[in-house]
Design brief:
By secondary structure, this protein is mainly alpha-helical. Helices cover 42% and strands 0% of the residues.
């Protein structure tokens, strides 16, 4: 697994994956011939997907399809903060927040 640096502190991020998701990702990687230095999800040109493009083409349609009220979902960061908050609520302080 390759860890790309993040702009906040250049620390790599590691996350656990459900075995079923790992199997799906393995199939995705093989089907799309993704190499070890390629992005897992990218534009057709192989460049990173912009936050705005992800939000308008993936996130909002998925939220709408799930029937979730979209009134307060424009803050993209909420998607990232909620899992860490839930983890801390359970007493695990290793979430990095």
């Amino acid at each position: 697994m390759i860890h790309k640096p993040y702009p906040k502190n250049n620390e790599p991020r590691t996350m656990g994956l459900d075995p079923d998701l790992l199997d799906q990702l393995t199939g995705w990687i093989a089907e799309h011939e993704i190499g070890p230095n390629d992005l897992l999800f990218s534009t057709r040109d192989g460049t990173p997907i912009s936050r705005n493009t992800f939000r308008t083409r993936v996130w909002k349609p998925a939220v709408a399809a799930a029937g979730v009220d979209q009134t307060n979902l424009d803050a993209f960061a909420r998607m990232r903060r909620r899992p860490a908050s839930a983890t801390e609520d359970r007493g695990d302080q290793s979430s990095g927040r």
